[in-house]
């Protein structure tokens, strides 16, 4: 008789668990629905109507730390930014140039899949050739698009008024030599 009682209790227990699972789900949905109805305002509209993101660029604060800006013409190749980077996302390749003082920067790569935008690299630069820009969007379809070699970018994109964009980064992958000799050339 105890086996029959355990089987019945097990079957009833199973139905009890199903009932509690459905009841708690319905209660949670009721709370969500009540909150949505209480906060719904037809005047508010959709998020995209309020901000018009693709058409109008987002307004950024003056001290916003976006993607870096780099001036290859004033970089002396001291590796200070690469040493100060806490996540080691800056890679500099340089060569000594005979007949003049300093180095020629062959590549200045920042891996934005690692970068945490802490701005440590910009604080101790002796020549102020790197600083945080206001670009906030560098969308790409592959991780390779997030690895930017500033020595291969046109100067107008890397330092000038043009923004750092995925198209310029993709086109810079085909450039084989740095776009400028650096200081003292």
Topology, please?
Elements: H1 2-39, H2 47-51, E1 68-70, H3 80-84, E2 90-96, E3 103-111, H4 120-123, E4 130-132, E5 147-149, H5 155-158, H6 166-172
Antiparallel strand pairs: 1-4, 2-3, 3-5
Which characteristics define this entry?
34% helix, 5 strands, alpha+beta, two-stranded antiparallel sheet, 185 residues, Alpha-Beta Plaits, three-stranded antiparallel sheet, elongated
Protein described:
The protein has helices spanning 2-39, 47-51, 80-84, 120-123, 155-158, 166-172, and strands at 68-70, 90-96, 103-111, 130-132, 147-149. By secondary structure, the protein is α+β, with helices and mostly antiparallel strands. The chain has a domain at 68-172: 2-Layer Sandwich (Alpha-Beta Plaits). Strands 2-3-5 form a three-stranded antiparallel beta sheet, with no helix packed on it. Strands 1-4 form a two-stranded antiparallel ribbon. A hairpin with a 6-residue loop joins strand 2 (90-96) and strand 3 (103-111). The longest helix has 38 residues, at 2-39. The radius of gyration is 28 Å and the shape is elongated. The model has no long low-confidence stretch (mean pLDDT 82).
């Amino acid at each position: 008789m105890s086996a029959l009682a355990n089987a019945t209790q097990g079957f009833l227990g199973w139905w009890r668990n199903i009932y509690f699972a459905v009841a708690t789900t319905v209660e949670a949905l009721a709370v969500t629905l009540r909150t949505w109805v209480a906060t719904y305002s037809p005047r508010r509209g959709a998020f995209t109507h309020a901000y018009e993101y693709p058409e109008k660029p987002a307004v950024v604060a003056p001290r916003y730390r976006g993607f870096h800006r780099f001036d290859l013409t004033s970089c002396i190749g001291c590796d200070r930014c690469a040493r100060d980077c806490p996540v080691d996302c800056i890679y500099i390749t340089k060569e000594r140039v005979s007949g003049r003082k300093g180095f020629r920067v062959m590549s200045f790569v920042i891996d934005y899949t690692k970068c945490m935008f802490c701005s440590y690299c910009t604080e101790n630069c002796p020549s102020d050739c790197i600083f945080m820009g206001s670009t906030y969007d560098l969308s790409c379809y592959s991780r390779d698009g997030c690895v930017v070699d500033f020595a291969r970018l046109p100067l107008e994109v890397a330092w000038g008024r043009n923004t750092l964009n995925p198209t310029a980064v993709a086109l810079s992958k085909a450039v084989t030599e740095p776009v400028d000799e650096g200081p003292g050339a």
